Amino acid sequence: MIISIASGKGGTGKTMVATSLALSLADKKTVQLLDCDVEEPDAHIFLKPSFSHREAVSISIPKLDEEKCSYCGKCAEVCAYNAIAVFPEHVLVFPELCHGCGACSYLCPEDALSEVNKEVGILETGQSNGIEFIHGRLAIGEAMATPIIREVKKHINQEQLAIIDVAPGTSCPVVEAVKDSDFCLLVTEPTPFGLNDLKLAVGMVKKLGIPHGIVINRDGAGNSQLEEYCAEQGIPILLRVPLDIEIARLYSRGINLVEGMPEWREAFTRLYDDIEQIVLARCEER
Amino acid sequence: MKEVVVISGKGGTGKTTVVASLAVLVRSKVMVDCDVDAADLDLLLKPVTQKRHEFWSGQKAVIDEEKCTQCGLCQDVCRFAAITDEFRVDPVSCEGCGFCYHVCPIEAIVMQDNLSGNWFVSETKYGPLVHARLGIAQENSGKLVAMVRQQAKLIAEKQGLDYILSDGPPGIGCPVISSLSGVNLAVIITEPTLSGIHDLDRVIGVCQHFGVRPTVGINKYDINETNSRQIENYCQSRSIEVAARIPYDNVVTEALVQEVPVVEYSDNGVSRQIKTLWERIVASI
User: Fold this and answer.
1) In contact, B265 and B282? CB cutoff 8 Å
2) What percent of chain B is helix, strand and coil (3-state, nearest 5)?
3) Is B48 in the A-facing interface, judged by CB distances under 8 Å?
4) What is the spatial distance between Cα A143 and Cα A210, in angstroms, rounded to a whole number?
5) CB 3.0-4.6 Å disulfide test: which of A102, B74, B159, B207 passes with B212?
6) Distances, alpha carbon A240 to alpha carbons A5, A203, B129, B184, in Å
7) pLDDT below 70 — which residues of chain B?
């Protein structure tokens, strides 16, 4: 089963929930934690894995063989991202615009374009408290997170429980991380920002057709509009974590909630049971 | 005219809280919300939209089922796994490269223009605001960011305004890079948590990579003073100014729930630090 943890708004507690869930279940089943917030991956801070493997993540970008090129301009014409410009006796490639689709080299009539790897980040795997840990890190100055997210997700073992920590927002890196999940847990807070961004995130998971539920973090901090929205939309609230300065302090030191306050372990185990129920019920419906 | 962008690396550190307060404090400016896939600034500034524009960007492939012979070539060449086994295009996965369109031997694929979102020019009681809403599960947020920034610049030029104040997105990827290019100063709002520190280091790396000068504001600095000192030392060693130390205070959430900028809601330590932040920003640009 794949459970992704998303939020819309940043800083609502995704990583806290993802790592607490993983730690609470690690002695009962085989758990994978995949940190797909490759722009700002933080789950390793809370799980402190020992990494055993590291590899570069690359996209394929075109490389020109000037001997073969007839400067016909076909490559520039087919490139949807304006990553190639062809002049009478010169070809310019803009690697930062390239999505690595491969159309230019395949369609070049002179076979003058080959593909070379361009590193856009790294992927590391390791172990922490019996949890298989995988994360990706976008290289500084690189724009595209999705190729790295795709690589991280290739490590998913469907037979096990895979928990995916997702970036904030609702655009392409978030969609790439969340799609194909069996369930998406949306972590939010009871403030107007939390609610506004939750609505966007709910729109996203609905479009992807993924069953979802809510974790309210900093419960009691704001107003009741969030609860009203969830009731109105029929979205289950599966866990509440209260506004508590002690929890914030633990977090600030990189200490996981269930580690600092072991009494929370049971609540996260129950959270998983509830998710499993929802996913099973949906399977039966089909 | 000077452009200042507020970014953070880590999400939820208080970017929008700071920008909404600067909207109150700074006289001659246009505001722009560059967090186009989770825009919140409008919740506090209560804009009245003057003009709404569609944002068309990129294309998506569509397969004509009548013509398609299911030869499978499109599926073979697509690197984004966007073509299903039923030979339909999954618009969420399609990156609009057009590879399938070019190789289809019987021209059964067309590329259709894609409506990615909307952008708005609005008036608020604090001045003009340019903001946007990216469509659900859409790409090209970097291009939409470039669009709203360009519009804000036009407004600033036309009205002779002194500043462009920009609320940036979290992260370090394409929309952040698009928010950063050519600005006079990047104000990084961080928090004294290990995650905040880790992400600060990466976002400062991005600023330096693109030659943008950063300045740092520590939000909730008193939630972990050891970590706050670590941030100060880190910044000092890189000659980066720490321009504000904003205390943790429930009034921030109270103001948010009332949907007003915190400097309007209360005159306390938080408001004073945001005022100091702006004084330092002005002095440094």
Assistant:
1) no
2) 40, 25, 35
3) no
4) 27
5) B207
6) 15, 22, 35, 42
7) none
- What are the tens digits of pLDDT across the range A21-51? 999 999 999 999 999 999 999 999 999 999 9
Torsions phi, psi for B16 (to 5 deg):
-70, -35
Interface of B with A in 23-42 (CB under 8 A): 35-38, 40
- First-last CA distance in chain B: 11
Distance from the B153 Cα atom to the nearest Cα atom in chain A, whole angstroms: 23
Would you say residue A284 has pLDDT above 90?
no
Report how far residue B139's alpha carbon sits from residue B145's, in angstroms, rounded to the nearest whole number.
Answer: 12
How distant is the Cα of A216 from the closest Cα of chain B, in angstroms? 15
For residue range B212-266, list pLDDT tens digits in order. Answer: 999 999 999 999 999 999 999 999 999 999 999 999 999 999 999 999 999 999 9
Instruction: Indicate yes or no: CB of A107 within 8 angstroms of CB of B103.
Output: yes
Q: Which residues of B touch A103 (CB under 8 A)?
A: 77, 97-99, 102
C-alpha distances (whole Å) from A252 to each of A97, A249, A263, A279, B198 are 37, 5, 19, 33, 11
Helix axes B269-284, B15-25, angle to 10 degrees: 70
> Which residues sit opposite B166 in a β-bridge?
B5, B32
Whether the Cβ atoms of residue B189 and residue B18 lie closer than 8 Å to each other:
yes
Among all residues of chain A, which has the CA nearest to that of B11? A10
Cα-based distances in Å from B36 to A123, A155, A168, A281:
28, 31, 12, 36
What's the rounded Cα separation, in Å, for the pair B274 and B16?
Answer: 12
Which residue from A40, A192, A251 is facing B199, i.e. has the nearest CB? A40
Residue-range domain boundaries for chain A: 2-57+120-285, 66-111
Q: Which amino acid is at A246?
A: E
CATH code given to domain A2-57+120-285? 3.40.50.300
Q: Going from the N-terminus, what domains does chain B have, and what CATH number goes with each?
A: 2-46+125-284 (3.40.50.300), 59-115 (3.30.70.20)
Q: What is the mean pLDDT of chain A?
A: 96
CA distance B27 to B282: 12
Contact in structure between A132 and A164 (CB atoms under 8 Å): no
State the Cα–Cα distance between residues B128 and B29, nearest whole angstrom.
8
Q: Is A140's CB within 8 Å of B202's CB?
A: yes
Q: CATH class for domain A66-111? A: alpha beta
pLDDT digits (tens, 9 = 90+) for A202-217: 999 999 999 999 999 9
Main-chain phi, psi angles of B93, to 5 degrees = -85, -25
Inspect the interface and report whether the beta carbons of A170 and B134 lie closer than 8 Å.
yes
Query: Which residues of chain A does B220 touch, with a Cβ-Cβ cutoff of 8 Å?
Result: 248
Q: Which of A252, A256, A259 to mutate to test the interface with B (most CBs of B within 10 A)?
A: A252
Cβ-Cβ contacts under 8 Å, B45 against chain A? none
Whole-angstrom distance, CA of residue B142 vs CA of residue B208: 19
